[in-house]
Amino acid sequence: MTLRYDLHCHSTCSDGVLKPAEVVRRAAARGVDVLALTDHDETSGLAEARGAAQAAGVRLIDGAELSVSWRDITLHVIALGIDPACAVLCEGLETIRSGRVHRAQRMGEELAAAGIAGAYPGAMKFCASARLVSRTHFARFLVEAGHARDTRDVFRRYLVRGKPGYVAHQWATLAHAIGWIHAAGGQAVLAHPGRYEVHGKMRELLSEFRDTGGDAIEVVSGSHTPAQYTEFARYARVFGMLASSGSDFHGPGESWADLGDMPPLPAGVTPVWKDW
Ligand code: AMP
Ligand code: MN
Ligand code: MN
Ligand code: MN
To answer: Top-level CATH class of 5-93+176-246?
Structure first.
């Protein structure tokens, strides 16, 4: 029997809508056999997820999605199979999180300057803990306040470079992020590479990621098109990296894909789970 993997999703411990146990139960109900919970810069949901996974008969992989600055763009690196108690990783994640509140306050100021009042407290209402505040929480506020139709619409008109509410931020370096993941015994996966605006520098990004110790590319992502599955499968083969698959589920009706929705990995790649 071929197992169904979903190695990228979010709970209320970052910018997801469902609690960790609810994410696990939804994944189980949708036929996922192996699930990685990968909250942004955070592992606090894993304990609850583990209990639910045992009850639901799902194999849970301890994960996280680390925010990284590479040149002038933000990358996301998925950690899979980490020890969440690893001190090096915990301290690293804490340094990534520590800038979020200040950035969010500045985002509130930028939106106020553009005529949208109350965005910082408004975003906080949607998030479980201030240290986790993300653009997604601002997006939910902007939808609720009638400034956009849905979160997708928000990210076309606000919160991105050149638009109201965008605040540049310095996250972890690629070398630090991959180092922390490896210190915790995990694998480092370049998340949704199709979403980065690298302007012809994809090969540079992938070779630097690999040479820094990166293990895998997220070939199949809820935010990739089928043409991108093929494109990144080729890159994985050419660069000698493993291939991963994840929905990037954030909540019912809000995400690109629901839990377990993805097709199998394209032929010819080696799955990131080959030695699990
Ligand atoms: P942050 O880490 O605070 O910069 O927030 C990044 C999050 O915003 C991502 O993890 C997504 O959940 C969300 N996001 C970014 N771009 C989009 C988009 N185009 N559509 C929907 N959500 C997005
Ligand atoms: Mn997110
Ligand atoms: Mn991401
Ligand atoms: Mn994600």
So the answer is: alpha beta
